[in-house]
Each structure stands twice: as structure tokens, then as C-alpha cells.
Write a structure and sequence with these properties.
Length: 339
């Protein structure tokens, strides 16, 4: 069990924010994690579990123990003619899992191609893109209960998935550490979602009318690469804000003044607005304040132009949220986890 003291976290968050942790340790098995949780010298420390660091903003140094989740492995639990049940370690890079399943021709997560981060974060956030969410293919996950080191299996209903939400972001926060995730993917009779965003347009541009799983994945990757900056080049955490879900009456008011406003159904008398569009209408797209700003091609993405502090990023996000509220009456919510 190797503990690194005063660990540099700069390379462990895709924002590239300079921060340190009082201590850092890596684990790749349940036994290693159990040992870390039971270590007397670490027991009193505040804990933070990190995967790919792609959805976190450090606003200051972390006065505690960072646990790097590196649980490996992708395997088939079972399969039949219709589907394959696949289990992946929480430390597996999410896009690697997607590419492995796409190569097999298995459907269900192709629309989630190129989403940064690791498998363990996927159910925490109920990650989603282009009309597909993690919960749509979810079977179960295994998570260690921090209080006693017991590994618990959570089924779909146990996870209380919502829009970028789950039990693990609310009641289960700081109580469990995810070790693996199991998904059910289709082997035939795929339900391709090409009606969301620009997927259909991209497929048409490529001359594709009856796309395969791989072709949908490639279209999604092309769209994401055209809109979103590479964190290795320009520090960012992807979409910084959630798309707000608001009452239909508010949507109608906004649409009367802005007929072009993109709106998506959300059910129960509510609808989802595009946060990026709201932000862009307030003049933030491509705008830079000091060392950070909103990306020039996607107003939903807040970027570190180099040398930005977490406090600067936080301050910019506050200004963006205030301007959207003043113009549209809509309160944006941050999607990133703020430390």
C-alpha cells in the first residue's frame, strides 16, 4: 500500500487546475481498497474518489485522501442470440469500453462514444448523450460500503437514476465506492437513436442511410470532435452545466420571444432547454475572462486557456448563471463536481 503525501493533482483533472492532496493512493482490487479504508493512519481523513478526473473542478487544495480508482477488466458475463451482458471494472476508460462493444457489433452505448472519464463515473452521473442514457442499458453495479468494506450489488431500481443524477450523487454520496458496472447490450434488432442532435445530418453527409452500430459511433465521434475541445490541448470538463428541465409554461414564454430556441420533451408537463443555446444568447460563446472562458464552438463548455485557478473558473460560471437567469428566468445547474 503506497501512499503519496502532498500529491500533485494537476494531471489528474482534465481542467488542468493546479491543486494538491494531503495524500493519494491507487487501488485496482476490492481488497486493496478495503485495506486503504481500514488503514489507521488514513481513517480520519476526508476521502475523494477519482477516476478520469473529467468531471471535477478543484477550487482549492484537497485536505484529505484521494483514492484513484483503477479497477480493470472487461468481460462477458453471459450472452444469447439477442443480447450480451458485459461487466467492466470501474477503472476502465469509458470510451475504451464503448469501442470494445462497438467492434463486436453490440448496440446500446454507441451514442455515448467519446464521453471522457471512466466506467465508475458513468452510473454516478447517469451519463447521457444524443438521446441515450446509461440507465437504458444498465443491469447492475458492485460498490463497496465505506463503513464496513462490504461489497453490495445495486440493481437498476436501487440506483434512482435521473437526469445526470443517481443515488450515488445524493443519499449514497461518500457512502459507497463503485467497483464494477454491468450492462446489457443488443446483438441484433438494435434500437438505433439517430434522431437526436446532428447524427442524422452527419450520416447523410457521409452517404449513409442504413447505419450500422459502428457508423453511428463514428458519426457521434465526428460531431463531438467538431464541437468539443480536447482536454489534452485545452483544459475543460466537457459540458459544465446541465440542460435545464423546466415547466412547459416557461418554455412557451421563451419560445414566444425566441421561436428558434431548441426544446426537447421531458414528460410530466416539463421540457428540456439547451443550456448551450441559453448561454450563447447571453453573449458568452467564445468570450474570455482572464485565463478562462466559454469555448468558441460550444458555449456549454468552460475552458482553461492556461493558468486558470479553480476560483476563476467558479467565478466565471457564477457570471454565466446570473446572466441566463436575468435574461430568461432560468436557473442553470453545474454538471461538474466542485471541490
Amino acid at each position: 500500500m503506497r501512499i503519496i503525501r502532498l500529491a500533485d493533482l494537476t494531471a489528474l483533472n482534465t481542467f488542468g487546475i493546479v491543486a494538491t492532496a494531503e495524500a493519494l493512493a491507487r487501488f485496482s482490487t476490492a481488497d486493496e481498497l478495503r485495506g486503504l479504508l481500514a488503514a489507521p493512519e488514513l481513517a480520519s481523513m476526508q476521502r475523494l474518489v477519482l477516476g478520469g478526473g473529467s468531471n471535477i473542478l478543484f477550487t482549492h487544495d484537497f485536505n484529505g485522501l484521494v483514492l484513484l480508482n483503477e479497477v480493470p477488466g472487461i468481460g462477458v458475463v453471459s450472452e444469447d442470440e439477442e443480447s450480451a451482458v458485459v461487466k467492466a471494472g470501474a477503472g476502465v476508460v469509458w470510451h475504451e469500453l464503448v469501442m470494445r462493444t462497438v467492434a463486436q457489433g453490440w448496440g446500446g452505448i454507441e451514442n455515448l462514444s467519446l464521453i471522457p472519464g471512466k466506467v465508475g463515473a458513468a452510473p454516478m452521473q447517469n451519463i447521457g448523450a444524443y438521446g441515450v442514457e446509461m440507465k437504458d442499458v444498465f443491469v447492475s453495479l458492485e460498490a463497496m460500503r465505506i463503513s464496513d468494506g462490504e461489497v453490495i450489488t445495486f440493481m437498476l431500481d436501487d440506483c434512482a437514476f435521473g437526469y445526470r443524477e443517481s443515488y450515488f450523487k445524493r443519499e449514497g454520496r461518500d457512502r459507497f465506492i463503485i467497483l464494477s458496472v454491468t450492462l446489457r447490450l443488443t446483438k441484433r434488432n438494435h434500437r438505433l437513436r439517430t434522431d437526436y442532435g446532428n447524427i442524422t445530418d452527419e450520416l447523410i453527409r457521409r452517404g449513409i442511410t442504413s447505419p450500422t452500430i459502428k457508423e453511428v459511433s463514428e458519426a457521434v465521434i465526428a460531431i463531438r470532435q467538431s464541437k468539443l475541445p480536447d482536454p489534452a490541448v485545452l483544459g475543460n470538463a466537457g459540458s459544465f452545466f446541465k440542460n435545464p428541465v423546466v415547466p412547459e409554461a416557461m418554455v412557451q414564454r421563451i419560445k414566444q420571444a425566441n421561436p428558434e430556441a431548441p426544446v426537447y420533451p421531458a414528460g410530466d408537463g416539463q421540457a428540456k432547454l439547451a443550456a448551450g443555446w441559453l448561454i450563447e444568447q447571453c453573449g458568452w460563446k467564445g468570450r474570455r475572462l482572464g485565463n478562462c472562458g466559454m469555448h468558441e464552438r460550444q458555449a456549454l463548455v468552460l475552458v482553461n486557456h492556461g493558468g486558470a485557478t479553480g476560483a476563476e473558473v467558479w467565478g466565471l460560471s457564477e457570471q454565466v448563471m446570473q446572466s441566463v437567469k436575468e435574461r430568461f428566468g432560468v436557473e442553470l445547474e453545474r454538471e461538474v463536481n466542485v471541490v
